[in-house]
Specification:
This protein is α/β, with parallel strands linked by helices. Helices cover 51% and strands 8% of the residues. The chain has 21 helices and seven strands. The strands form two sheets. It has a five-stranded parallel sheet, sandwiched between helices. It has a two-stranded antiparallel sheet with strand order 6-7.
Length: 436
């Protein structure tokens, strides 16, 4: 069978799916299992959840004789609008006094169907309705794309990772090895779409690899960057990534508005946060090297606006992890560490700077914490724990630098007010040269 033989509304994709072979195989395998009826693809905006979801639905169309349908939930803000959207998509009109759920269950009870519910993150409270639909329609399966898991018992979650990147040591290896990276392959294909003579060469391969690494392997970010290759050669493009959110605009006009700039993509998730979540999200941007939960909790407890709001830090961090705005990874010591993708951190830092009170309190608490941390590790350097102290210092090096910079800037401001501008500027420049 094919797309034109089974009822469906799957859009024809204008470009090939790149670098998702492993994920595609795993997701289709799971949906083919009798144990999986609700599978949620999660990940931050720009990871390609919708594109992969459509590809999965296309691959599985032969398994669902009564249809495969995508339901775009992006325009919907009211959770009560989810089931009516499903009904409209599959061609069911309410014809009785029964609820729309009852109507759907009556009409779809014996149907063998796959529903792709796209962009579920802003209507997650409708999850229970989805579960009831599954219970009433035993032959239906549902694939969800969302920046946040639905958190219901029947759900199976598949966190979608970024595209594979060159290893740190691969940046100086052959073009062939670099070209095996899915992120690099995507960059090259999208660059050739706007500049047909673009090629991966010995001169630019390492630069393209570094661009993809700086963009964390996020497909949307890579596509937006590649679209600029018509104007900027790779080296110039890499240099402009110091202002990633400013550069990564100008997406295709046939994309939703929220996907035409990276700032809008991240802003979509930010706008869904409650006030407390926004504060914690912004506070996390002060950690250029990520942080342990203990460090974040300690610093948050000393930031007055967060103390006054009585923010539950544990719940807040869990929520940000659930919403794909924060990641937890293991550091070199196998200890969990909270980190943000670079582009997401850029956005959070922008928002933090718009709040002078929170920003000043955050940087002050951060500087004090890492000043104390550095002093404590310094004590251990002369003892039996010197090796552990060096490891801890190495892990926190970016945070220590940021804290020292904050302290120096504060000191510089004090000296300027005291009329010591020239001497303090010379001293500040020397210190900055040493630490950077």
């Amino acid at each position: 069978m094919s797309l034109d033989q089974i009822p469906n509304n799957l859009p024809v994709q204008p470009t090939a799916l790149i670098g998702r072979e492993v994920e595609l195989e795993e997701i289709t395998k799971r949906l083919n299992s009798d144990q999986v009826r609700l599978l949620t693809l999660t990940g931050p905006g720009g990871t390609g959840k919708t594109r992969l979801g459509i590809q999965v639905a296309s691959e599985l169309i032969d398994h669902f004789k009564d249809g495969v349908y995508i339901v775009d939930l992006a325009p919907i803000r009211d959770p009560d609008g989810v089931l009516p959207a499903v009904a409209r998509t599959v061609g069911i009109r309410k014809t009785s006094h029964r609820s729309i759920l009852e109507e759907l269950m009556e009409r779809l009870r014996d149907q063998v169907m796959l529903l792709l519910l796209d962009n579920f993150e802003q209507v997650t409270s409708a999850a229970n309705q989805v579960v009831e639909l599954l219970i009433g329609c035993p032959h239906i399966k549902i694939l969800v794309t969302s920046r946040e898991a639905l958190r219901v018992r029947v759900e199976h979650v598949f966190p979608l990772p970024p595209l594979t990147l060159p290893e740190a040591g691969d940046k100086h290896t052959s073009i062939e090895l670099l070209g095996k990276s899915a992120a690099v392959r995507l960059f090259v294909e999208r660059a050739q779409a706007v500049k047909p003579d673009f090629m991966l060469t010995r001169e630019n391969a390492a630069i393209v690899a570094e661009i993809c690494i700086r963009l964390d392997g996020l497909p949307l970010a890579i596509e937006l960057a590649a679209s600029r290759i018509k104007l900027f050669p790779p080296q110039a493009l890499l240099e402009r990534l110091s202002s990633r959110l400013k550069l990564l605009t100008g997406g295709a006009r046939d994309l939703p508005a929220r996907q035409q700039t990276l700032r809008d993509t991240i802003g979509w998730s930010y706008d869904l946060l409650e006030a407390a979540g926004k504060q914690l999200f912004e506070l996390l941007s002060i950690f250029p090297g990520g942080c342990t939960f203990e460090a974040f909790e300690t610093i948050a407890s000393k930031v007055e606006p967060i103390k006054e709001a009585q923010v539950d830090v544990i719940e807040g961090v869990v929520s940000l992890l659930d919403k794909s705005l924060l990641r937890q990874v293991s550091d070199a010591n196998e200890e969990p560490r909270l980190v943000m993708f670079g582009t997401i951190r850029d956005y959070a830092l922008e928002r933090l700077e718009e709040n002078p009170v929170l920003s000043a309190a955050a940087f002050k608490a951060h500087a004090e914490y890492y000043a104390d941390f550095t002093r404590d590790q310094w004590r251990y350097l002369s003892g039996e724990s010197s090796e552990d102290a060096l490891k801890h210092m190495d892990l926190e090096l970016e945070n220590i630098r940021a804290a020292l910079l904050a302290i120096l800037v504060i000191g510089e401001n004090i000296r300027k007010r005291s009329g010591l501008e020239n001497r303090s500027s010379i001293w500040l420049n020397k210190v900055m040269t040493l630490i950077y």
